[in-house]
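Q: Here's a chain of 106 amino acids. Please give me its 3D structure as tokens.
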Amino acid sequence: MRDIDWGTAAQWAGVVAALFIAIWGAMRQRGEKAIENMAGDLRRIFERLDEADHRISKVEVEIAHVPTKDQLHALDVKITALGAQMGAVATTLNRLQEHLLEREGS
């Protein structure tokens, strides 16, 4: 059987342990860096959500002043009625003008 050289085995164990620690440290740093990046991304996302919430609030305030469908319909009916009255006034004015022109010509 072979005799084990414990000095060489210890050196190899040290090298393996050092490699393991180096790889574990690098992976841990990557994980911490990824967490830091995600935290920054989340911060930006929440800032954008706050901006969107502010903009939505502004729109809600403006929409509160916009007339409803029923109010617009009522306004349309009134404008139509006003147009009919204006037509009647125009007809009356035309008749009056014709009458005055006839009186002036006679």
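Q: Can you summarize the key feature?
A: Residues 44 and 97 are 73 Å apart (CA to CA).
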